Amino acid sequence: MVDAFSVMNLVGLVAFAVVGALKAADADLDLFGVAVLGILTALGGGTMRDVLVGRTPASLQSVADVSVAFVGVGLAVALSSLVSGRLRDHPAIQLPDAIGLAAFAATGALVGAEAGLSPYGVVVLATLTAVGGGSLADLLLTRVPVVLREDFYATPALLGGVVFWALVRGGLSADFAAVACAVFVLVVRLVALRRDWSLPRV
Amino acid sequence: MVDAFSVMNLVGLVAFAVVGALKAADADLDLFGVAVLGILTALGGGTMRDVLVGRTPASLQSVADVSVAFVGVGLAVALSSLVSGRLRDHPAIQLPDAIGLAAFAATGALVGAEAGLSPYGVVVLATLTAVGGGSLADLLLTRVPVVLREDFYATPALLGGVVFWALVRGGLSADFAAVACAVFVLVVRLVALRRDWSLPRV
Amino acid sequence: MVDAFSVMNLVGLVAFAVVGALKAADADLDLFGVAVLGILTALGGGTMRDVLVGRTPASLQSVADVSVAFVGVGLAVALSSLVSGRLRDHPAIQLPDAIGLAAFAATGALVGAEAGLSPYGVVVLATLTAVGGGSLADLLLTRVPVVLREDFYATPALLGGVVFWALVRGGLSADFAAVACAVFVLVVRLVALRRDWSLPRV
C-alpha cells in the first residue's frame, strides 16, 4: 500500500509541476517564472501544510521532491514547444493531475491528524495540501484561483478529508484511512471530470 | 470583562464571515469559494498571527471558531438572496464588523506581548489579526486590499496596538490593556465611519 | 567583514523600503498603504524566510530593522513630492537596491544552512529572502511579481545561493561563503543592469 501511495505522490508532483509550468508559459513569464510556478504548484500546498502545523517544510529538506518537480518543469518546457492548444485539458494531464490531487489530499489529512488538529483542521489541511499550490500559482498570475470559481476540484479533496476523518473516528488506522481517502478523491474527481460537475452559485 | 471580550470575539467572527462571504457572492464565486472567503475573512488574520509567533493556529485546533464562522457564511447565503444592494455598507453589518475589528486587534496585541515581540511587533500583530483575513480575501479576488487604499479601518487597529503597548509599558496588566485597546479601537472606528475619515495620500 | 555586511544590510533595508513605498505612492495608496508596502518590501522576504525555518521573525523582535525601514518610507514620501518621473530606474536607487539584493541573498543562504536545509532549500531561501518582500508588495498591488516576468533580478540571488552552497560544500566557512555570495550577487546584478540582461521565455 505504501508503495502505491509513493507512486501516486510522484505522479502528482510531476503532473502538478507540468500544469503550473504550462500556466506560466501561457502567461508569457520568463524561464525563472516558469520554473517557480511549476515548483510552487507541485510543492506549495505541502509547504503551507507544514508551516501551518509548525514543521520545517519537507520541500526545503528533501532533495527528491524538488528534483521530481523539476522533471515536470522540463517536460512542460519540452511539450509547450511541441504541441499547441490547451494541453491542460488533455486526458494525459488530467489523469495524473487527479492522481496528484488524491495523493496530496491524503497526505494533508494524515499530517493534520498527526498534529492533533480538529476535524475542521484535518479537512482544511487535506484541501489546502491538494489545491494550495495551484492556488498560489494563480495568485502570482493575479488570477482568482480557479478552485474558488467553478471547478469541481477542491470539493473532492475536501470530501476526502471528511472520509479520512470519519474512518479514523470509526476506529480504523490512519494509514488505511489515507488510502481510502486517496481512492475516494480519485474516483470523485474522475467522475466529476466525466460528468462536468460544478457547484451551485449563491 | 473576559465574558464581554468573548462576546465581542463571537460577534466579530460572525460579522467578518458575513462580509467575506458576501464579497465572494458578489464576485460570482461558487459555493466553495463563498465558504472559503467567509471562513478566511473570519479566521485568516488570527491564523497568520499564530503562524508568525510559531503557534499551531487556533483556527485549526478548535471546533468552535470555525463553526461560528460557518454561521456567518450561512447568514450571508440566506441574506444575499433576500436583500439587494450593498449590504456591507449597512449599519447592521458595520457595527458588528467594528466590534470584530476591536476584539481581533486586542487579541493580536495580547498574543504579540505574550510572545515577547518588540513594540513594533505588537502593533503589527494587532493590525494583522484585525485586517489580515479581509486582506487575504481581497487578494484571492485579485483586488488591492481596501485597507491599503482608502479606508480608515486598519488605522484604528494599529493605534489600538499602540495604546495596548503604552498601557502595558506604563505598568498595567495585559488583560486590562487588552480591554482598553478594544474599547479604543471600537470608538475610533465608529467615529471614523460617522465622520467619513480617511488618510492623506502621498 | 561582519561590519561591511551590516552596512550592506542597512543600505538594503533603506533602499527596499524606498522602492516599495514609491511603488505604493505611484499606485495611489493612502499613507497607511505606502508605509505597509515600504516596510513589507524591506522586511517581507526575511519574515517569510524565518517563518519557513520555524523562527519567530527577526522583524517582529528587533526594533532596529523596522526603524531603518521607516527611514526609507520617510525618504520616499519626501522624495516623491520633490521629483517626478520613474525614480526607481535611477542609479541612486538601483545601486543601493542591488546592495540590498546581495546582502539579503547572503543572509537567506546563511539561515538556510543553519537550519540544515537541502541544497535546494538553501537556494530557495537565498532567493526568497532577496526577492520575497518586493514580490509580496507586487501581489498586494495585484501585479504579477516583476521578477517572474522579465527582470534579471532573482537570478543573481539564486546563483548566489548556489555559490554559497558550493563554497560551504567545498569546505569553506559559512561566514566566508556568505561574503563571497554577497559580492557575487552584487557584481552579477550590476552587470545585468548595465548590459540589460534578461532570461529567455519558453
Automatic annotation (TrEMBL), chains A, B, C:
Compartments where located: Cell membrane
Keyword Membrane annotated: yes
Top-rank lineage group of the source organism: Archaea
Record field: transmembrane: 6-22, 29-46, 66-83, 95-113, 119-140, 152-168, 174-192
One Pfam entry name: Gly_transporter
InterPro entries: Gly_transporter
Chief localisation class: membrane
Every Glycine transporter domain range: 7-79, 96-167
UniProt membrane topology term: Multi-pass membrane protein
Keywords: Cell membrane, Membrane, Transmembrane, Transmembrane helix
A single GO cellular-component term on record: plasma membrane
Name listed for the protein in its UniProt record: Glycine transporter domain-containing protein
The keyword Cell membrane appears for this protein: yes
